[in-house]
Specification:
By secondary structure, the chain is an alpha/beta fold. It is built from 16 helices and 17 strands. The protein is about 35% helix and about 15% strand.
Length: about 475
């Protein structure tokens, strides 16, 4: 089908005068070909749900092994409940296919969904290089009536100032000839399918009313919780950024207040549980640090993109970035209290992944903790049940498999990530002198051990 035929027929959702119901039916019956660019931890679940609802999806990824896996009905993404079965079903039924060649997907697609990484540079500047490279490759294949949805997180104003002009230059088309909307992913690792399908509403904002309408129609088909159309793409960008900034500032508040546990003393868990009984209070949990591909990065999408000053965001980043050092400082203090120095101590670090049950190490607080320990401790051991031995040991230390933890004999244990598997440790058969509990969600036997929990302080003198 030619571009002209597609722009005048039911395969085009943008600028179409048909009813919402007719356009939704065209989308859900496979008349609207979709290309999803990026089949990573967030992209593959998104492509699979698109395939589930529309039946006509081609995924594009630069990694040939990912393409081979998807076409074989195999899932290259781990840690996402339900995803392996959905990928197998969609591939087997011909609803989802994959390619590494954008020229084999883009020309036939009417809806282009972009979900590739956006990080920061070493100078903490927003890095849109991967996204811009994809836009340059996509542009020449864009047809009149096509839609482009950006799900990748970007700084506020980036769509209007950078991505749309770049797409217009590369395609030779102007907004009005094609549609463009920012539709930010609102998913968390370990629950992607649940979130995409409707744990909460989808936010969409187009560069014009026709783009917003088309995005709403598409995502109403995907998301059972509905869609929140906002005024424009920049508003949608700011919604996504605000979600991350709220969490960063909230966690920084928790981390700062957690330090008073040593002096008052108070149990911060008790404080937050009581304070949060008021509906408008939701204090987050303190811990050894903040990791992942969202919270540590998004403040710089504002601070180092816009011209204004953001002292609150800067302070929050500094507070959260300081927590790994706070953790190792408490380790040294507690070891000293039992007559040991860090230099003569062996230390076991539990958890390298930044989040329980999720095999990701991006910006993990375990990295700076392990960096200091490998420089100063006499021996460093490390264990993580969701990572390979190579991934677990990448930041230093001798890898100890989870079943062998109790055979280790460290002087101290630092819990960075509260993996469920660690709750099965029989602490009665495990005798480190000191335990630094970086996660309040991890319950320990404070009657037997000297346990320092961030936000609670020294829980018990224990047996030393």
């Amino acid at each position: 089908m030619t571009a002209t035929e597609r722009s005048q027929g039911p395969t085009s959702l943008y600028g179409n005068d048909c009813s919402d119901e007719s356009l939704a039916e065209a989308f859900t019956t496979g008349s609207v070909p979709v290309a999803v660019y990026g089949l990573g931890k967030m992209g593959l679940p998104l492509a699979s749900v698109y395939a589930e609802k529309s039946g006509n999806v081609t995924g594009v990824d630069v990694d040939p092994s990912v393409v081979r896996s998807v076409n074989a009905g195999e899932c290259p993404v781990s840690g996402e409940p339900g995803l392996p079965g959905l990928v197998e079903k969609m591939a087997t039924e011909g609803r989802l296919q994959a390619t590494a060649d954008i020229s084999k997907a883009a020309p036939d697609a009417s809806v282009h969904v972009v979900i590739v990484p956006t990080l920061i540079t070493d100078d903490q500047e927003p890095d849109l290089s991967i996204l811009k490279s994809l836009i340059r490759d996509l542009g020449p294949h864009l047809d009149r009536g096509d839609l482009v949805f950006i799900e990748s997180t970007v700084p506020p104003g980036a769509c209007r100032e950078v991505l749309v002009p770049l797409l217009e230059d590369e395609s030779g088309l102007q907004i009005g000839e094609f549609g463009f909307a920012f539709c930010p992913e609102r998913t968390s690792s370990g629950r992607a399918l649940k979130d995409i399908r409707g744990a909460y509403p989808k936010v969409v904002g187009g560069v014009d009313a026709a783009s917003t309408r088309a995005a709403r129609i598409v995502y109403e088909a995907l998301n059972e919780a509905g869609v929140i159309p906002v005024a424009n793409a920049t508003t949608a960008e700011m919604v996504k950024i605000t979600e991350g900034l709220y969490r960063d500032v909230n966690i920084a508040l928790a981390n700062e207040l957690a330090s008073v546990a040593d002096d008052l003393p108070v149990d911060f868990r008790e404080v937050t549980d009581a304070a949060s009984t008021i509906p408008f209070i939701n204090v987050h949990e303190p811990g050894a640090g903040v990791g992942g591909h969202c919270i540590p990065y998004y403040p710089y999408f504002v601070m180092n993109w816009l011209d204004d000053e953001f002292p609150l965001l800067q302070t929050a980043r500094e507070q959260n970035d300081a927590m790994p050092e706070f953790t190792t400082d408490r380790l040294k203090t507690q070891l000293a209290s039992v007559g040991k120095s860090i230099e003569e101590s062996s230390v076991l670090v539990l958890g390298v992944a930044y989040k329980p049950g999720v095999a990701e190490t991006r910006a993990t607080p375990a990295e700076p903790i392990l960096n200091e320990l490998t420089e100063r401790a006499s021996e460093v051991l490390v264990s993580d049940p969701v990572l390979s031995a190579e991934e677990t040991g990448a930041f230093g230390g001798t890898v100890v498999p989870v079943p062998s933890i109790q055979e280790a004999n460290p002087d101290a244990v630092v819990i960075v990530t509260a993996h469920e598997e660690f709750s099965e440790i029989d602490w009665s058969q495990f005798d480190p002198l000191v335990i630094i509990n970086g996660r309040q969600s991890m319950s320990l036997d404070s009657e037997r051990h000297r346990v320092y929990t961030i936000g609670t302080g020294l829980e018990s003198e224990g047996e030393v």
